[in-house]
Amino acid sequence: MEAISLNPIGYVVSPVTDVKDMPPGGVAAEIEVLPQYQPALLRLEDNSHLWIQSWFHQAVRDRLIAHPRNNPQLPEYGVFAIRSPGRPNPIALSLTKLIKVDNGRLYVQRLDALNGTPVLDIKPYYEGDIIFSPRTPHIRGRSRSSHQNQMLRQAQAHHQENCQSLFLAVRMAVVADEVFGHLNNPNLLVDVTGSACLADTIQGLSRARLANPARFSYQHSVSLQQTIWTLPGRGTLTLTWLGQSNVMECADEQLFSMDFKLD
């Protein structure tokens, strides 16, 4: 088969120049589109989010097996089964939030590409791209803080507001994940009592649906903020907020009344 030739349509302008300094989830950055391709940006600003395909030019290309998130405590996967940057063809697919388009330059958030990275293509993120509850392996971060930050980014992408209930939902989900594992487990039932924001964020983190299968239930309450997680054959975890305002700083036992009952 003949070799494939790809020409960059632009380059990343980022404050990050070393892969070791790139935080999970990326940073605010810019994409400078080459002049000959700038007409293709017409009406791009009608979209809130974009898929950015780039060429990770500093990635290794002889890697076929890797530990997810460079965590040796996790099992190895083939690189086609995870998001490892090192792979035979280091084509990266990044979901970013578009802030603005100005004179051929895109201003985006959460781009995990280094300064100078060649950009191969730009595509809008459409509603049809959403798979609400996909089946995926459970890949936990190396530490509790990294896993919590991963859940925080997921919650922000789903709920779109940094309210107190979002932070409370993240803390509850982290505890439930440590007890039951993957929150997308089709057998894990989730019952929420509290604010609509709490329910929405918990649903986004657990991917629990009202039907097919029926895993999620919600009751509105102003005075009580509580989640009940039930895994048949394992047990039931009840987390009740004790009212502290500094949700992301408190220890679990200061933040929640926690009750776990074995089946």
Protein architecture, described:
This protein is of the alpha+beta class. The chain contains four helices and 13 strands. The protein has helices spanning 144-159, 164-180, 196-206, 252-255; strands at residues 10-13, 27-33, 49-55, 65-66, 77-78, 91-102, 105-111, 118-124, 189-194, 216-220, 226-231, 235-241, 256-262. A six-stranded antiparallel beta barrel has the order 1-2-7-6-3-8. α1 crosses α3 (196-206) and α2 (164-180) runs parallel beside α3 (196-206). The relative contact order is 0.13.
Short description:
With 263 residues, this protein is an alpha+beta fold. It has two domains: 10-129, Elongation Factor Tu (Ef-tu), domain 3, CATH 2.40.30; 144-262, 60s Ribosomal Protein L30, Chain: A (2-Layer Sandwich), CATH 3.30.1330.
